[in-house]
Amino acid sequence: MKNDFAKYLTRFFTDYLSAERGVSPNTLRSSGAAFSSFLDFMKLKREVEADKLTLRHVDHKTILDYLEWIQEEKRCSVATRNQRLAAIHAFCKYMQYEEVTRLQQWQEVLGIKIKKTIKGAMNYLTLDAVKVLLCQIPTNTMRGRRDLAMLSLLYETGARVQELIDLRPVDVNLNRPCHVTLFGKGRKKRIVPIQDAQVSILKEYMKENLLFEPRMNQRPLFQNGRGGKLTGAGITYILKNYAAMARNSTENLIPDNISPHCLRHSKAMHLLQAGINLVYIRDILGHVSIQTTEVYARADSKQKREALERTYTPILPESSLSTPSWEKDPELKTWLKNLGR
Looking at domain 4-110, which CATH architecture does it have? Predict the structure, then answer.
């Protein structure tokens, strides 16, 4: 049937995701990106225009070819590939009840597996690195003062970048106990306390930008030059600029790969190293499960080393723990000293 794909895709977004499930704007954006990319694939690789797409095109082989295309030709990461597949899976689950005559087709697509990703070392900054990074931000311009308030709050609260973007003046409480209200995945609300130094920076910034006025309550807390919301890419660009400046002033302190999420990881690690219970860190970060938060404990090599040192019991013979044997051998000492000459 002509245009049946467009009809059901529209219903999937408007009736199912938005109205029935009430998913977050972030999930809608992610799902929209997946199907937009799929339309590009069908046009470029299958020579099928969007208005000619039908449900029969959404089959097992086509989806596998699409996933290979975004990885091999578009150079997308495994994580992006899995996000795109998750959106298609959601659509096929929906279609199982909307177009039952194609049940086998939907189940074959649902049988495509999520790819395992190789997890690298967690990317986070030391406390000294965060200080150096924030010190690069000039405070003699309005834009600099905005950037300082924004990036320091991103670190202070451990917020996801979209949570920061969605913040409004009404979500900020600068009366004791001072806190911000963040809306996380699935629009789950959480309250995160902020310290006096952060409160002072926010007060100055909000006062300068008239954000305490009632008419500004629902506007974005951090705005672009046109008065609208900043984007994740925009905040990443700002952060990378200051990171590059920090690298010029100090060596080996700021990693080459840095993103807003790196500040979230950094806050979590610093809370852990300060002895804060994982349950509290979970609540601050807005994790659903403590298992998600435990990744920080597994990543903290300093804490692991200190724990091992506290439990270490010497088992080697006393003679083995004394002066190294080569110190007692003058000929070996001479030979070692002459190495490399």
Answer: Orthogonal Bundle (1.10)
Contact 254, 125 (CB under 8 A): yes
Residue 23 identity: V
Write down the pLDDT at residue 274: 87
Active site residue 280: no
Catalytic one of 89, 145, 219, 287: 287
Q: Which fold has domain 127-303?
A: hpI Integrase; Chain A (1.10.443)
Quote the crossing angle between the two packed helices 260-273 and 232-249, to the nearest 10°: 60
Residue 115 half-sphere exposure toward CB, CA atoms < 13 A: 17
Q: Active-site residue 21, yes or no?
A: no
Tell me the three state secondary structure of residue 172: strand
261 annotated active-site? yes
Model pTM?
A: 0.69
160 is a catalytic site residue: yes
User: For 272-293, how does the pLDDT look when each residue is reduced to its tens digit (9 = 90+)?
Assistant: 888 888 888 898 898 878 777 8
